[in-house]
From TrEMBL:
Similarity-based family: Belongs to the AMP nucleosidase family.
Listed EC numbers: 3.2.2.4
Protein name, UniProt field: AMP nucleosidase
Taxonomic lineage of the native organism: Bacteria, Pseudomonadati, Pseudomonadota, Alphaproteobacteria, Acetobacterales
Keywords in alphabetical order: Hydrolase
Organism of provenance: Teichococcus deserti
GO cellular component, one term: cytosol
Catalytic activity: AMP + H2O = D-ribose 5-phosphate + adenine
Alphabetized InterPro entries for the sequence: AMP_N_sf (IPR037109), AMP_nucleosidase (IPR011271), AMP_nucleoside_Pase_N (IPR018953), Nucleoside_phosphorylase_d (IPR000845), Nucleoside_phosphorylase_sf (IPR035994)
């Protein structure tokens, strides 16, 4: 049920409540994973393949919803957990225990407000065997080859993973259920494993508030701030997860915590991530050093999107394009000139990527809080305008070609990632925002010289990071408004 959610349920059970539905999803998933792991162990040790009957158990649980309204639909202002067309909906679910809060958040209103009915049962979508392995090397002991495993166990298939629903390419057929979510189980599992590969951390630690940066210096500042938060007796945060899997908790002595940070093998990972957990491990902050360029920006956001975060913010450096800007000023993007080209086939450049009012206002409020400036004083340091994002770091060498386009766009800043991340947020329905810091002025002779750059970093990075963190503090109180209807399509699935 990857690109087509029309798989026929096998012995589905009606569920009266969201809790009952998620409980059954968890039980079915755990049983399927246990059965597949047991069969894998037996095959590695004894070369006994699973029988067809055994392999039939290696399936994701399916979730089916039916809505047959007898009157007008309820008037609901939120943009998610909504039904627009009567009929049947379906999806497959992976790791339902980890996604339990999200699933309950989506299902409860559909039952209570719309009177929808739910069924849960095994789907027809097989779980690829790599997705039931935790360490990844469990099968090494038997010398079994990937080709042998592929003959007897489900394998990841590119034909079974896609973004057709998110990209509006899925087509309804009579008798087939509509998709209930943007991503089905196979697509989610694909990205969860990619997250571990790129970030060096377990995907379960990814938090719903995500900072994306292109400079490791922001990571250092974030770690220092996180450790200070963990030392606060009245702090909200409980643990910091480092690349490589080490965890620093509130009970760690400062020396031990510093040693774990120093020993974290972040250099081994392409886009290292750090997760600051809050409360029960949810509603905290994640920061990812995505590196430089639109390719990295698309790669990581493709995968982060399946965790259904509340918001991601780009906080990094840009070149200032206006004479009036100074090094250390801020650029609050309200529009994007997308010269990154990486999404042109999926989201053509002529499609506007709107600024989200809730995020824009929160960023400006946070800047006022952190800097202590307001009114004209704040406006002198924080300028709102268009950011142009290139796929070519040496775009200046094509200045005679690019000048007219930049001039027409009224762009005030230039970088390589912000347009991609905003377009991905729009495309994948994740609220987004961009606050950049001017680190050089390439058109005005103020280039990033080593000495000046060091002084700039020391002064600007800490304040910039604090603004991003404060923005999330404001947005936590505005979740219903944050998940804007601007991001929803005509035939949107009910799940956020």
């Amino acid at each position: 049920m990857s690109r087509d959610p029309a798989a026929v349920p096998s012995s589905p059970l009606a569920c009266a409540t969201a809790e009952e539905a998620v409980d059954r999803l968890e039980a079915l998933y755990e049983a399927a994973v246990a059965a597949e792991r047991a069969a894998l162990d037996r095959f590695v040790d004894q070369r006994i393949p699973p029988t067809p009957e055994e392999r039939a158990a290696f399936r994701y649980p399916g979730l089916w919803l039916r809505w047959a309204p007898e009157g007008p639909p309820p008037q609901v202002r939120r943009s998610w957990a909504k039904l627009q067309v009567s009929g049947d909906y379906a999806t497959t679910i992976t790791n339902p225990a980890a996604f339990r809060p999200y699933l309950l958040e989506q299902l409860r209103p559909l039952i209570a407000e719309y009177g929808a009915t739910l069924e849960v049962g095994p789907s027809s979508q097989e779980i690829p065997y790599p997705y039931v392995l935790e360490g990844g090397d469990e099968l090494a002991r038997g010398g079994v080859s990937a080709a042998e495993l592929a003959r007897h166990f489900p394998v990841p298939m590119l034909s079974a993973v896609g973004d057709e629903v998110a990209d509006g390419l899925w087509r309804f057929r009579d008798g087939a259920p509509r998709p209930m979510a943007l991503f089905d189980a196979a697509r989610v599992d694909y990205s969860l494993r990619r997250l571990q590969h790129y970030t060096g951390t377990d995907w379960r630690h990814v938090q719903p508030w995500i900072l994306l940066t292109n400079y490791q210096r922001y990571i250092g500042q974030f770690v220092d701030w996180a450790l200070a938060e963990l030392r606060r007796a009245d702090g909200d945060y409980t643990a910091l997860v480092l690349p490589g899997g080490a965890v620093i908790t509130r009970g760690h002595a400062p020396e031990a915590a510093a040693r774990l940070v120093a020993e974290a093998p972040w250099q081994r990972f392409q886009m290292p991530a750090y997760h600051l957990l809050r409360g029960e491990g949810r509603n905290g902050l994640t920061i990812v050093n995505i590196g430089v360029g639109p390719s990295n920006a698309k790669t990581i956001s493709d995968h982060l999107a399946v965790t259904r975060p509340h918001c991601w913010l780009m906080i990094g450096h840009c070149g200032g394009l206006r004479q009036s800007q100074e090094i250390g000023d801020y650029v609050l993007a309200h529009g994007y000139l997308r010269r990154d080209r990486i999404l042109d086939d999926l989201l053509p450049p002529e499609i506007p990527v709107p600024a989200l009012a809730e995020v824009q206002v929160a960023l400006q409020q946070a800047a006022a809080q952190v800097t202590g400036e307001a009114g004209e004083a704040l406006k002198r340091r924080l300028r709102t305008g268009t950011v142009v994002s290139y796929d070519d770091r040496n775009w200046e060498l094509r200045w005679s070609q690019e000048r007219l386009r930049i001039n027409l766009s009224r762009a005030i800043g230039v970088d390589m990632e912000s347009g991609t991340l905003a377009a991905q947020g729009y495309r994948l329905r994740v609220p987004y925002g961009t606050l950049l810091c001017v680190s050089d002025k390439p058109l005005h002779g103020e280039i990033k010289l080593p000495g000046a750059a060091t002084a700039f970093y020391q002064r600007a990075v800490s304040e910039h990071l604090a603004i991003g963190i404060a923005t999330f503090g404001i947005l936590r109180q505005q979740l219903t408004a944050l998940h804007s209807r601007k991001l929803r399509a005509f035939d949107e699935p009910p799940f956020r």
